[in-house]
C-alpha cells in the first residue's frame, strides 16, 4: 500500500476522520439541549427533537408526543438562530468529512497529497471546525 503521507500525516488522517465522525454524529443527534416539559423529558438539537408538545384539537389540550423526529420543513425549526446554526454546523461537518476522507485516501494512494494540498486541507479543516463549533457566527 503506497502512501503520500508521512507518519504524522497518517496520524492526522485517522484523527481527522475520528473527529469528523464525532462531529457528524453530534450534529445528527437531538441531544443538544435537555430538559423537561409537562413532566416529560425533552431534548432537541438543531433540526431534530424528542418528546415535543402538540395541540390536540379533539381534547382541546396540549399533549406530549413521546417520539423523536426531525422538523417537517426548514421553516419549522423554531428560530432563525437555530436555522443558521443548522446550516453552519452542517457545512462545517461536510468540510471536515471531505478533508478527512481525502486524507484517508492519501494513506492508500501515492502522490495524492502534496505539502501544499496538506496545508490547504488543514486550513479547510480549521474553517470547518470553526463553523461546526459555532465560532463562525461571531461568538
UniProtKB/TrEMBL annotation:
Keywords: Membrane, Signal, Transmembrane, Transmembrane helix. The chain crosses the membrane at residues 87-109. It is found in: Membrane. Its main location: membrane. GO terms for cellular component: membrane. It comes from Hippolais icterina. Residues 1-21 form the signal peptide. InterPro entries: LHFPL (IPR019372). This is LHPL6 protein. It is a multi-pass membrane protein. The keyword Signal applies.
Amino acid at each position: 500500500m503506497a502512501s503520500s503521507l508521512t507518519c504524522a500525516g497518517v496520524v492526522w488522517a485517522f484523527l481527522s476522520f475520528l473527529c469528523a465522525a464525532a462531529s457528524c454524529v453530534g450534529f445528527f443527534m437531538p441531544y443538544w439541549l435537555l430538559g423537561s416539559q409537562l413532566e416529560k423529558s425533552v431534548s432537541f438539537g438543531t433540526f431534530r427533537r424528542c418528546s415535543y408538545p402538540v395541540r390536540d384539537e379533539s381534547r382541546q389540550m396540549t399533549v406530549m408526543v413521546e417520539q423523536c423526529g426531525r422538523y417537517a420543513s426548514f421553516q419549522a425549526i423554531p428560530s432563525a438562530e437555530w436555522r443558521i446554526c443548522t446550516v453552519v454546523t452542517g457545512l462545517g461537518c461536510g468540510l471536515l468529512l471531505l478533508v478527512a476522507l481525502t486524507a484517508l485516501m492519501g494513506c492508500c494512494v501515492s502522490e495524492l497529497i502534496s505539502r501544499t494540498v496538506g496545508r490547504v486541507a488543514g486550513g479547510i479543516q480549521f474553517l470547518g471546525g470553526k463553523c461546526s463549533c459555532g465560532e463562525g457566527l461571531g461568538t
